[in-house]
């Protein structure tokens, strides 16, 4: 098609140099033979509104939104998807043909898909989940888990108020567990999730003991650098199915790419290798 327009997309954050999103989307652009590019958009917080308002004029099909803009960018959207409203943050902007802006959040669905990729038999209603941390990633994951029918989601966070806010936002299936009781709270869970930065490259390991965790529980970490955090290593050695954060990152990118480029891409071993080569 000679009339195929050049499609621009990108990732808006501050800073943005660490993001792996360009490696993902540019791999897919090349794979599908599309005309387009996915670029880094470093935008200072005070310039966020000007940058977002400029997307339609610059011919962008949309962009991803990362730290620290996920909440403030939401306020500038013309419409939000139900998931974005529940999570109260966006990670994707779609510029529609009339120039209006749709805010979406694919993190929760991306997370659920990463569990299914690791364990196709995973069922949300199998039992409780324990989520460590109460930030933006935790919020998206909790929404995903509740949508999948997890009967009880326990939140343990070093700052109890943050956990309390989450519980109040999502109702009776979300329970707050004191940080001091995080290990005991594992006793009957089917899924343990770390959304804190502990265990990330250059950070101290997450301080947990898995002694009470049932043998059939899955253990997941939103971190993907390193691919195996001390938590996941500890879990693997005990025989648990483990899931790192790379699957969430790759899977959340699929619906965004489809919305911008009109092609639904696949998460393949080749893509995983391309992204891992950037670590």
Write up this protein.
- The protein has helices at residues 21-31, 48-58, 82-87, 107-118, 136-147, 160-170, 230-237, 246-261, 269-276, and strands spanning 7-13, 36-42, 60-65, 79-80, 92-95, 101-104, 129-132, 153-156, 174-177, 191-194, 218-221, 242-243.
- The chain is of the alpha/beta class.
- Helix 6 links the parallel strand 8 and strand 9 (174-177).
Q: What's a concise summary of this model?
A:
The chain is built from nine helices and twelve strands. It has helices at residues 21-31, 48-58, 82-87, 107-118, 136-147, 160-170, 230-237, 246-261, 269-276, and strands at 7-13, 36-42, 60-65, 79-80, 92-95, 101-104, 129-132, 153-156, 174-177, 191-194, 218-221, 242-243.
Global shape: globular
Overall pLDDT: 96
Number of strands: 12
Distance between the termini: 36 Å
- Number of helical regions: 9
Percent strand equals 15-25%
Q: What is the radius of gyration?
A: 19 Å
Helical proportion, percent range? 25-40%
The main sheet orders its strands as 2-1-3-5-6-4
* Residue runs with pLDDT of under 50 for 5 or more positions: none
> What's the SSE pattern?
EHEHEEHEEHEHEHEEEHEHH
Give me the secondary-structure category.
alpha/beta
Main beta-sheet strand count, sense and barrel state? 6 strands, mixed
Please supply descriptive tags for the structure shown above.
279 residues, 6-stranded parallel beta sheet, 34% helix, alpha/beta, 9 helices
What's the arrangement of secondary structure elements?
Layout: E1 7-13, H1 21-31, E2 36-42, H2 48-58, E3 60-65, E4 79-80, H3 82-87, E5 92-95, E6 101-104, H4 107-118, E7 129-132, H5 136-147, E8 153-156, H6 160-170, E9 174-177, E10 191-194, E11 218-221, H7 230-237, E12 242-243, H8 246-261, H9 269-276
Parallel strand pairs: 1-2, 1-3, 4-6, 7-8, 7-10, 8-9, 10-11, 11-12
Antiparallel strand pairs: 3-5, 5-6
Helix pairs in contact: 1-8, 4-5, 4-8
């Amino acid at each position: 098609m000679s009339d195929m327009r050049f499609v621009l997309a990108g990732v808006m954050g501050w800073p943005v140099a660490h993001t792996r999103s360009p490696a993902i989307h540019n791999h897919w652009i090349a794979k599908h033979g599309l005309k387009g590019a996915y670029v880094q958009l470093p935008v200072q917080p005070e310039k966020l509104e000007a940058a977002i308002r400029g997307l339609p004029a610059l011919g962008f099909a949309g962009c991803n939104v990362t730290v620290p803009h996920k909440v403030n960018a939401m306020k500038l959207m013309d419409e939000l998807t139900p998931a974005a409203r529940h999570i109260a943050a966006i990670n994707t902007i779609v510029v529609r043909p009339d120039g209006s802006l749709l805010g979406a959040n694919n993190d929760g669905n991306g997370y659920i898909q990463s569990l299914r990729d690791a364990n196709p038999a995973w069922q949300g209603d199998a039992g409780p989940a324990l989520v460590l941390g109460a930030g933006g990633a935790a919020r998206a994951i909790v929404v995903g888990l509740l949508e999948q029918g997890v009967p009880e989601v326990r939140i343990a966070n070093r700052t109890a108020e943050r956990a309390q806010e989450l519980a109040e936002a999502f109702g009776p299936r979300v329970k707050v567990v004191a940080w001091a009781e995080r290990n005991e709270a594992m006793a009957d869970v089917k899924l343990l999730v770390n959304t804190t930065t502990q265990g990330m490259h250059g950070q101290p390991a997450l301080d947990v003991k898995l002694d009470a965790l049932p043998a059939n529980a899955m253990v997941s970490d939103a971190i993907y650098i390193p691919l195996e955090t001390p938590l996941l290593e500890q879990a693997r050695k005990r025989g648990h199915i483990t899931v790192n954060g790379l699957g969430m990152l790759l899977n959340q990118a699929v619906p965004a790419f489809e919305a911008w480029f009109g092609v639904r891409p696949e998460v393949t071993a080749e893509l995983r290798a391309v992204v891992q080569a950037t670590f």
